[in-house]
Amino acid sequence: MTLAPGSDFEIELRPTETPLPDEQRVRQMADPGFGRYFTDNMVTISWSAERGWHDAQLHPYRPLELDPAVMTLHYGQAIFEGLKAYRRVDDSLALFRPWENASRFQRSAARMAMPPLPEAAFMGSIEALVKQDQAWVPQNREQALYLRPFMIATDVGLGVRPSSTYLYMLIASPAGAYFPRGLAPVSVWLSEEYTRAAPGGTGEAKCAGNYAASLVAQAQAAEQDCDQVVWLDAVEHRWAEEMGGMNLYFVYGSGPNAKLVTPSLTGTLLPGVTRDSLLTLAKDLGYSVEQGRISTDEWQAGNANGTITEVFACGTAAVITPVAQVKRLGAEWMIGDGEIGPVSRRLRDALLDIQHGEAPDSHGWVHQIT
Ligand code: COI
Predict the structure, then answer these.
(1) What is the distance between the alpha carbons of residues 256 and 195, in angstroms, rounded to a whole number?
(2) Ligand 1 pocket member 245 (CB < 6 A)
């Protein structure tokens, strides 16, 4: 079967005949953590220069057998996405703005000289796996089934060039809180030494290498007793960009007059789906919202003079995570009282309400699966 762009998606369904026994699945789902357990099945779709996308299959979750010279292992042509399937209050299953992930996956592919996966194949693979493994979608509002679409280069060879074959895969994992301490605020280290992304680089792409390159700065944050690293721009080392793998929001003022500011998408930030949804949701809740620039000095001064009242990070995995303590070379400060602030809390609740079907989907963000 070949998948021409725009054609209908067809997938061969060959699920496992030996799913994990109910009792073991229920035990894993009682305390899933993040990315620890995986469902019974997965999807693979192949691409070659001659055949395009072909051979879409849902089959048992299993290890890959790869030649040691396969290109992805050497030069890092590897991209991924992250989205969740939610069990809603009426027990139906739904995705949240999955077409945004489909389109970002295509943009990431373009940046890494990989072939774009058609939206129909992205959506079709997810629908097939979520339907097949629906017993793995948790009930609890703080949990969901985390979906991980990804693509690797599969040509064998050590010449540095784009591969002529690729493998798209989709795996799924029941997920609770991303951070071990749940909703508890995190402490952050402002990294003035390392940068995540430079103009013209791969910062906008969700490629594996961006995350590999972040680990040493994350380790430095840990040495400073901080949970997470905050990335600054690569040119001046003073504009806040992201926290770890998540986008950032700053809250100025309080109550109905609060204003939210998130760093602009300059080309070096990952355009997060949660970030984008909050731009709209915050307006719905009556707050003013801006995309702009926040320097580390403004952050420190805004905290000292009380204009910045809350800071939070946002992403699919952890939703909204408050930032309580900030450290940089020679200074540290606390934001708020160390608890999640009222604006962050309200936005988090509003987003989860839509995702779990407890509030109307007035922006057409929800994609029902069952
Ligand atoms: C997210 O916030 O969803 C992320 O991208 C983090 C992920 C790498 C676990």
Answers:
(1) 36
(2) yes
Q: Return the residue matching tokens 């609770």.
A: 176
Query: Is residue 202 helix, strand or coil?
Result: coil
- Give the residue whose CA is nearest to atom 5 of ligand 1: 245
Residue 244 beta carbon below 6 angstroms from any ligand 1 atom: no
pLDDT digits (tens, 9 = 90+) for 250-269: 999 999 999 999 999 999 99
Residue from 79, 10, 45 nearest 168 by CA: 45
Q: Is the dihedral of CA 280, 282, 285, 286 positive or negative?
A: negative
Q: What are the tens digits of pLDDT across the range 89-139?
A: 999 999 999 999 999 999 999 999 999 999 999 999 999 999 999 999 999
- Compute the C-alpha angle 286/290/294, nearest 5°: 130
Ligand 1 atom with minimal separation from the 35 CA = 9
178 CA → ligand 1 middle, Å:
9
Instruction: Quickly list DSSP for 147-190.
Output: EEEEEEE--B--SSS--SEEEEEEEEEEE--SSTTTTSPEEEEE
Hey, what domains does the chain have and what are their CATH numbers? 2-175 (3.30.470.10), 186-355 (3.20.10.10)
Identify the DSSP state of 296.
H
